[in-house]
Amino acid sequence: MKQSVVAWVERYFYAPSLGERCLSYLLYPLSLLYCGIVWLRYKTATERDVHIPVVSVGNLSVGGSGKTPLVCALAATFVSPCIILRGYGRHSSGLIVVKDTEGIRCSVKESGDEAMIYAKKLPSAVVIVSENRDHAIQKARQMQCEVVFLDDGYSKHHIKKYDILIDTVSSNRFCLPAGPFRERLWSGKTVYIAHEGSTFKRLVRYSNLTDAMLLVTAIARPERLHSFLPRGVIGHYYFPDHYYFHIDELEQLLQRSGATSLLVTYKDYVKLSNSNLPLSLMDLELEVLPELQQSVHAYVSDLKAYSQDRTH
Question: Domains, the chain, ranges and CATH?
Fold first, then answer.
């Protein structure tokens, strides 16, 4: 039931039918009210210096857009970065240091799947989950990180930061609840718009492929994977985003499908790596335009230089 509801919402937001478009127009007055409230929050926010360079990578719409691999690609170019995110889907609350310079400090259920991706893919990074980004940024300062990357931090207008937004393609351009957009690119807000194909391109690395694989994943908008599927995929089964799998249900899927392995993304893999299930991996990474990398490094260097000048 939940899977079908999620699938309907994603279709309604990103590829609406005629009937769904009519529903969207009926809800448009609520979108105007929602957008007005969000705009007022933006206009009343006062940007302040948090005394550490902050780079935010996000998008304006709900659902996946490639934030995690873009953060990974950019953070990997620094010596001691910190990744801060809310930790959607985690079975914990409050501020948790998922990984420090000594290693991973908690389980994937405590961290959330996306935080564990960062913890495993970025050896030199500190990873923190927290509902309160301000507290997490101060923790990153205490841990002497050189730069903070906010996963999905555009809406934190009170924080001085370098904003990167991944452009999302959708025929429905309305705000919630009539459309998928959580916020607009407000007048006066300076951001770097990243476009797939020009700013970055996706690369896929495969491991342990078999002749009969069942694609099983718990990511937002899983149809994004279709163009990257290798040969040998005999079917698919989609779970809600951030879902924590039960081994017995996956074993049943394997038996019913006749597959020899489960094809999963890295986001799924971090939750299944300790199981005895036969897993095939498709790991999506990004190749980023040098211009964006240089722009981010220039922002961080300039802010560091400014801070040093003020202390002398």
Answer: 42-199+289-311 (3.40.50), 202-287 (3.40.50)
Structure tokens at 263: 């094809």
What is the enclosing helix (H) or strand (E) of 256?
helix 247-257
Cα 108–Cα 110–Cα 111 angle in degrees, nearest 5: 65
Contact between residue 180 and residue 268 where contact means Cβ atoms under 8 Å apart: no
3-state SS, residue 97: strand
CA 148 to chain centre: 15
How many residues can be counted in the chain? 312
pLDDT digits (tens, 9 = 90+) for 141-189: 999 999 999 999 999 999 999 999 999 877 788 999 999 999 999 998 9
Q: Quick check: 49 pLDDT over 80? A: yes
Tokens of 154: 């555009």
pLDDT digits (tens, 9 = 90+) for 201-258: 999 999 999 999 999 999 988 888 999 999 999 999 999 899 999 999 999 999 999 9
Query: How far is residue 95's CA from residue 142's CA, in Å, rounded to a whole number?
Result: 14
pLDDT 10s digits, 50-63: 999 999 999 999 87
CA distances from 120 to 100, 266, 287 (A): 11, 10, 19
Is the pTM above the cut of 0.90?
Answer: yes
Under 8 Å between Cβ of 58 and 191:
no
Say whether 54 sits in a helix, a strand or coil: strand
Which string of DSSP letters, residue by residue, matches 181-223? BS----TT---EEE-BTTTEEEEEEEES--SSEEEEE--SSGG
Residue 312, both tokens: 């002398």
